[in-house]
Design brief:
The chain is of the alpha/beta class and about 475 residues long. The protein has 2 domains: about 170 residues, Response regulator (Rossmann fold, 3-Layer(aba) Sandwich), CATH 3.40.50; about 290 residues, pyruvate-formate lyase- activating enzyme. About 40% of the residues lie in helices and about 15% in strands. It contains 19 helices and 15 strands. Strand 6 and strand 7 form a beta hairpin. Helix 15 packs parallel to helix 17. The protein is globular. The termini are far apart.
């Protein structure tokens, strides 16, 4: 049985659906960020271990249009597509066109959006199966049932069509993550993956845990993983690091866990093993400010960690409390101080536009960002992804004027309003935040003095042009889709 796993085209969505020609032209100045689709690579590894002939087509990495993708696909027994909320409508268009060209090949969709709305997904006559929850074992059992002509009724976590739409019982989460094979990176175009900013290439991402035990209302990973945090053993993690170094010559890794540093002893053991095995890598991760200490940070630095992305979200304690972030402003300040002391680059992410946002809380967030002074900062528009507490809350309050999934993109426009801000004011606040943080003379001079490579020069020049254009308000002329929110 031959199975093709597909990451649908994305860039066309910006141009075709949103008509953002301005964005398309400007962002070409920036070195592209392309990350490996590990969810597909994990599923591919599980299927291959059970004897299936598997192929991955990463349309984003290969820069494929819809027509390119169709030309590249060959005969298979099952197509598996990964989809997301912001890309859902365009992904459906891709899947429909593929179905027209390969009408006899069954397809299966998975992702957080599909897990939240399996019935909505299966109402499309060109969709055959949908996964609710983690995909590895469900898709394996689906393939087994299809190959053997067995009933699908016992495949937990599967939604399908038979005398209507059937949704089987929920599949338990995979408890032993060490039992999963390493992602099938050999099926991916590894040379094409890189983040916006890096120290060394080749680069890859890695997952060492799944889930997060905290209760932030906007977290979409809880749709599949709930609040249960599961981790791989340090030995298993370092074995995978050794594999990517030996097989692909990897020099830099980003641990893309929701919360890499939750278990400090586990992190310390991973660092110890990296040092003991003399692995020549640099790496980064995502973290919460209350899950690291000086000892852990120092060991992380010694083992190659050079950057940490902290989810800060707001400079208003009121907003942090209302969104159930469960952290204090002074904890964040102290962690940034410790991180800088050991020589690790601090990066921060903020969210603007939650229901309790006002002009005053936006000002507090901007001032807090400047006070923390991260190396890089990201200001995102608060987006109520389906399946989250945030989504249910804004829907109940009447703050969700649309369920056009094209609008659910934290970088392209506000899908909601808040108590104190209209969608337009939320978008303007994000632009103002970027302007006040990045256009400070002290920040610009400091960054210019640190440029050492052509890549860094290209990145900063491209980012500067994009930032100036972004904060100039001109991009609103391109975003015709926002008219729905401002009527």
């Amino acid at each position: 049985m031959r199975i093709t796993l597909i990451n649908p085209p994305y860039f066309e969505r910006c141009v075709r659906e949103f008509r953002c020609q301005g964005i398309a032209k400007i962002t070409r100045l920036l070195p592209p960020e392309i990350l490996p689709p590990l969810s597909l690579a994990y599923i591919a590894a599980v299927l291959r271990d059970h004897g299936y002939n598997v192929e991955i087509v990463d349309s984003i990495a290969l820069n494929l249009t819809l027509n390119d993708l169709i030309k590249k696909l060959s005969k298979a027994d099952l197509f598996v597509f990964v989809v997301s909320t912001p890309t859902f409508m365009t992904d459906l268009n891709t899947i429909e066109e593929v179905k027209k060209c390969f009408p006899d090949i069954k397809n299966c969709l998975f992702g957080t959006h599909v897990s939240t709305f399996p019935e909505e997904t299966l109402k499309k006559d060109f969709v055959d199966f949908a996964v609710v929850g983690e995909g590895e074992i469900t898709i394996l059992e689906l393939a087994n049932a299809l190959e053997k002509g067995q009933s699908l009724s016992k495949v937990k976590g599967l939604a399908y069509k038979k005398d209507g739409i059937k949704i089987n019982s929920k599949r338990p989460l995979i408890e032993d993550l060490d039992s999963l094979p390493f992602p099938a990176r050999d099926l991916l175009p590894m040379e094409r993956y890189k983040p916006f900013f890096y120290k060394k290439l080749p680069f890859t991402t890695m997952l060492t845990s799944r889930g997060c035990p905290f209760s932030c209302i906007y977290c979409s990973s809880r749709v599949i993983f709930n609040r249960k945090w599961r981790s791989r053993s340090p030995e298993n993690v370092v074995e995978e690091i050794e594999e990517v170094v030996d097989k692909f010559g990897i020099k830099e890794i980003f641990f893309n866990d929701d919360l890499f540093t939750l278990d400090k002893k586990r992190v310390q053991k991973i660092c110890d093993l990296i040092l003991e095995n003399d692995l020549d890598i640099v790496w980064g991760c995502e973290s919460r400010a209350d899950t690291v200490d000086h000892k852990t940070l120092k060991l992380m630095k010694e083992s190659g960690c050079y950057k940490i992305f902290y989810g800060i979200e707001s400079g208003s304690q009121h907003i942090l409390d209302k969104t159930k972030k469960d952290i204090k402003i002074d904890q964040i300040e102290e962690t940034f101080k410790k991180t800088k002391e050991v020589g690790i680059q601090c990066n921060g992410s903020f969210i603007i536009g939650v229901p309790w946002e006002t002009k005053e809380t936006v000002k507090q967030t901007i001032e807090f960002a400047k006070k923390l002074d991260p190396d890089y900062v990201n200001f995102s528009i608060a987006t109520p992804y389906p399946g989250t507490e945030f989504y249910e809350m804004v829907k109940e309050k009447g703050y969700l004027p649309t369920e056009d999934w094209n609008l659910f993109d934290e970088h392209l426009g506000a899908a909601i309003r808040s108590d104190g801000l209209t969608p337009k004011e939320i978008e303007d606040s994000v632009r103002m935040a970027y302007r006040h943080f990045y256009l400070r003379p002290s920040y610009i001079v400091r960054k210019l003095l640190k440029i050492k490579t052509f890549h860094e020069l290209r990145y900063y020049l491209g980012a500067a042009v994009y930032l100036i254009w972004y904060v100039s308000f001109q991009h609103r002329k391109d975003q015709t889709h926002l008219s729905k929110l401002q009527s």
